[in-house]
Amino acid sequence: xxxxxxxxxxxxxxxxxxxxxxxxxxxxxxxxxxxxxxxxxxxxxxxxxxxxxxxxxxxxxxxxxxxxxxxxxxxxxxxxxxxxxxxxxxxxxxxxxxxxxxxxxxxxxxxxxxxxxxxxxxxxxxxxxxxxxxxxxxxxxxxxxxxxxxxxxxxxxxxxxxxxxxxxxxxxxxxxx
Length: 177
Hints:
The chain has helices spanning 17-27, 57-68, 105-115, 152-166; strands at 2-12, 31-40, 43-53, 73-79, 91-100, 119-129, 136-146, 168-174. By secondary structure, it is of the alpha+beta class.
């Protein structure tokens, strides 16, 4: 019987690390079903949903422990993809945030979303130096699901206020998968 595992993996960024981890998963009859991978600072982070034979889980965990001796950190948690909360009938939106970077942008926005019972499905953030001035600019893209009974103008208006306070532009548009 196959089991689904969420695996997080963080370690020093180096050429071939994705090859090593995915080869290890494959050696234990595993399959990567979904993943997000990125370099953050000097570290490389992987978040994977894998399926693996139940009889191979212990061996896979042992192999991951060997990588920890090399300075990598891995964690594994069993999950059931079909058990995820479903937001049937909820409305999906895309948020695009951009502007000067300052502390608290992500918290201010996500705090408001949580207060409104809006769920964050995906979020990517980044900072980069502006081409001419070198000022640090912030960008965020998020996919959120909104309860159908929640009034769009109400939750959207508060985002505009947060954008004004944080000196960022927040665009909201319907999102289709």
